[in-house]
Structures are given as structure tokens and as C-alpha cells.
Amino acid sequence: MHKLNALIAGSTGYIGVQLIKLLVNHKNIKIKYLCGNSSVGKKISHYDKSLKSKSLPKIVRYDKKYLNEVDIIFTALPNGEAQNISKNLLKKNTLIDLAADFRLKKSSEYLKWYKKKHKAILNIKKAIYALPEITKKKVKKYNIISCPGCYPTSVLLPLIPLVKSKSINTKNIIIDSKSGFSGAGRGVHKKYSEQNLYQSLSAYGIGFHRHNSEIDQELQNFTKSNLGFTFTPHLSPMFRGILSTIYLDLRPGISIKKIQSILKQFHKKNNFVRVLKIDSLISTNDVINSNNCFISVCKTKYDNKVIILSAIDNLIKGGAGQAVQNMNIKFGFKNNEGLK
């Protein structure tokens, strides 16, 4: 069977390593190049011993000449780096970006939220924001595929169906999300050197976290109403996983059973999303090491309010797994290939 050649730029980060672990088991992909900077010359097993038995290339510094030899470029790099790579893409190349370089549809919004000018403005229109359960086969038309952030993935999968169906009040949405510290990258221990990551819970980015822009942009695609939401992320004393707790006001005449029905109907063909029984208590442990999103609709003491719980693995469904899922759709591979 002919395999597509892949290059992974940013291969030694948490998401980069997770991506390699998925792709080595993908029957349609051959990893041609692993790229890094300070890691050049090392084996990837230096960063994850489970890859020691795999036949993988040593890490090299990225060079645009490699684009002639590969079909797919995965970029798990700091924000801004994929923009540079996108300028040299060939017709045969598909770029799948796991950072934020092509998530926002306006360069002015990118400047506002990421405090840097976009370096590949002409490529923004050539890119698709690809949440697989929403965009589905639309990705086939694009050669730049932008994967959503981990927090927005956990938030948008339950919220888009409810906003689209006009079943909730969109002016008072409260989102409380808690993530494992792997979401902050390998530099998290230096950044939080004065805090004990393993014994403390901390809020950050209050009111102005970058993912606000992403959540707002995507929800606005499904409503003409003004959006009003508050999103607060937290760093939790665990390595991986996200649990988002979403507080919603229901529109008149909408019951909790209706909310449950809307979500189940919307996601009935989405194999990686499971809408559980009402009032199911879910945890990150339910989804760790999977590409799944578990969603639970919960009652409150008020008939016109519900609480949505949404759990994902930030490194897989919120990162590497979603990238592979998008690739599978783009190239017509089995939906769960490499994600079993």
C-alpha cells in the first residue's frame, strides 16, 4: 500500500510526541522527517521511551527543501512559525497546524490576541478552521488545515449544537475549564517554578485568554444574536485532560430533555463524541488516552438552567488526535485510523 510521507515540525513537545505515537500506528503514513531545534541529532526516544522500538528518523533542523519529499506537514510549533512554512508550500503539500496561526479569520484579530503581526495574511483565506465534527468533509477543499485549541474543542462540541438550535440564552454563558499542565507545554515547569504544579489549582488568563477569540468567532457562525460569555481557564495538578463546566440559561419552553435530545441527535454520527445520560458525572479519567469527548447534561435547582460537562484529553482530542482525525477526512482514510 502506498503511504503518504509526513514531516513533523515541533516533534519533541508534548503534542509533537503524542502525534508521533499516533502516526507510527497509522497504516497510511510514513514519518519521513522529525524536526526540531535544540534537539537536532537526537532520537525521539530521548523524549519518550515508548518510541525506542520504533523505526524513526533522527531529529533534523527544518529546511524548506524537505517539502519536495513530503505530502503532509504537521506543525506543532510556537505561534507564528507555521506562517513562515506556509509561504513555501507546494501544490502537493497539505499543512496541518496544531498552533493558532490560522485559527482566526482576521489578521487584525490575530494581532489583537497574539500581540504579533500575521506574516502570511494571504494564506488566511486559504485555511480552514477544522473542528472535524462540524467542518466534516469541507477540509477536502483546503491545503491548510487549522486545528482548534484544546479548550475551544471541549467548549464548542457541546455549545455549537445548542447555539445553532436557538435553545439557550446566548448572552449569559459561563465557561469554567480546567486543564492538565501539559497544555502549557514543556516550559510549564520554568514558567510556574515558584508553584507546586502537582498540588495546586490556579486560574489564569481571566477575562482575556486568547481562546476567547476562537470561541467567539466559531459560535458567531451559528447565530445572529449577540454573544455574551465568560471563559476562565485553570491549570490543574494533573498531567493531561480537560474538564469544562458550562452554565447555561434555557430559552422559554426548552427543557433539559430537549437539550439532551438536541445534543444526541447532532452527534449521533460523530463516533468520537458520546452524549451520556442526564446527570452523568464524568471526569478526565473517562477520556484519557483517547480521541473521545464525553458530554453530560446536568440538572440544577432551577428549571430554566442546566450545566454541561465536557471532558477531553487535551493532547489527543484537543491536539494530536484531532490533527489525525482531520487528516483522515482530508485523504479519505478510515475515520478512526491511527486513533483506535
Walkthrough of the structure:
The chain has 340 residues and is of the alpha/beta class. The chain has 2 domains: 159 residues, 3-Layer(aba) Sandwich (Rossmann fold); 164 residues, Dihydrodipicolinate Reductase, domain 2 (2-Layer Sandwich). It is 26% helix and 21% strand. A 7-stranded parallel β-sheet has the order 3-2-1-4-5-7-6. Strands 9-10-8-11-14-13-12 form a 7-stranded mixed β-sheet. It is globular. The protein starts with a strand and ends in a 9-residue tail after the last helix.
Query: What Rg do the Cα atoms give?
Result: 20 Å
Would you tell me the overall average pLDDT? 94
Number-wise, the strands total 14
Structural class: alpha/beta
User: So, CATH architecture of the largest domain?
Assistant: 2-Layer Sandwich
What best-fitting shape do the alpha-carbon axes yield? globular
Q: What is the CATH topology classification name of the largest domain? A: Dihydrodipicolinate Reductase, domain 2
Strand content: 15-25%
As for the number of domains, it is: 2
CATH homologous superfamily assignment of the largest domain: Dihydrodipicolinate Reductase, domain 2
Largest sheet: 7 strands, parallel
| CATH class wording of the largest domain | Alpha Beta
